Amino acid sequence: MSDDEYQPLTPSLQNVIDQKSLQWVFVGGKGGVGKTTTSSSLAVQMAAARESVLLISTDPAHNLSDAFGQKFSKDPTLVKGFDNLYCMEIDPTSSIQEMIESADNSAMNSIMQDLAFAIPGVDEAMGFAEVMKLVKSMEYSVIIFDTAPTGHTLRFLSFPTVLEKALAKVSQLSGRFGPMMQQMSGMMGVSANHEDIFAKLESMRAVINEVNQQFQDPDKTTFVCVCISEFLSLYETERLVQELTNGNIDTHNIVVNQLLFPPKDSNCDQCQVRHKMQQKYLEQIFDLYEDFHITLLPLLTHEVRGVEKLKTFSKLLLEPFQPPK
Predict the structure, then answer these.
(1) How many CB atoms lie within 10 A of CB 160?
(2) Where is pLDDT greater, at 133 or 89?
(3) How far apart, in whole angstroms, are the C-alpha atoms of residue 148 and residue 197?
(4) Strand 77-78 vs strand 85-89: parallel, antiparallel, or unpaired?
(5) Is the predicted pLDDT of residue 1 greater than 50, yes or no?
């Protein structure tokens, strides 16, 4: 296609709102680029178009409560001023702790658990599976994830493999030491119920496998990348897009946040220099992602906190921002 024929895609997230088959939307990027504001604003717009929306924060530094000015917990809570938008804040690592504590804590069982959890990433994988089991049992037309900074975002793609390793380890050990454990536990008068932890790992793996299949279906899942127009953020976004592509997760939206548009007659040197730098990286973003919807958001003079400000800001996701002439 020649440059003359090239038509850039609409610079807004309207395509996400219009895709009625979507069930999962992830919003991710480097720390401090405005992921929570973007995901909250997208949830506000989704609530106007869908029956029910759940916004989940998996970032341990939960910011949804700050964004909406309302306290959220690990149970879905209706956002004030809405009748179909719910928020919940979860910490995958604490849910695994609770699960261990509630498990049958016989001596043998804890040995088995310790062995299974010795494999790196098992705790996170189990925590994620717990969350997914919970979420799958709920009836929401779309679920939006406000994810942790980039490093953690894609870990769930490797969870099935991690759990398979843990399962193999537990079955290998129970095969080898099972009879001896039965004898010892008989002598000590405790039950060696290692089947319990095995069944738990197996059911978690099934849940994660099923969810991952849905995540890899572009009709059901998409990933919105949020960045700012700076070198590090651009670099991180490129890494994120590559990882998503390798993991077969659809991504065709990039939100560029905190853009400066100083008036022509502005005598603020810093603003002019920063604007020039941002424009340089913006050009690179447009070159790299010509088959993406690139939404530009301005740097505001106030914080976006509270439902009313989120409603106002969320309109910028759908109506392309017009910088002052």
Answers:
(1) 21
(2) 89
(3) 28
(4) antiparallel
(5) no
- Per DSSP, the residues of 133-167 read HHHHTS--SEEEEEPPSHHHHTGGGGHHHHHHHHH
Nearest to 20 by CA among 135, 137, 141: 141
pLDDT digits (tens, 9 = 90+) for 277-289: 999 999 999 999 9
* Number of Cβ atoms within 10 Å of the Cβ of 150: 20
**Is the per-residue pLDDT at 314 higher than 70?**
yes
Return the active site residues.
59
User: Is residue 2 predicted with pLDDT exceeding 80?
Assistant: no
CA distance 246 to 233: 20
Estimate the crossing angle of helix 307-318 against helix 35-49, to 10 degrees: 80
What three-state secondary structure class fits 78?
A: strand
What are 227's strand-pairing partners?
Answer: 256
Q: Cα separation of 171 and 177, whole Å? A: 10
Is the C-alpha dihedral spanning 156, 158, 160, 162 positive or negative?
Answer: negative
Q: Which of 259, 254, 319 is nearest to 289 (CA)?
A: 254
Cα separation of 62 and 58, whole Å?
Answer: 8
pTM of the model as a whole:
0.83
Residue carrying structure tokens 């008989």: 186
Residues 6+ away with beta carbon under 8 Å from 151: none
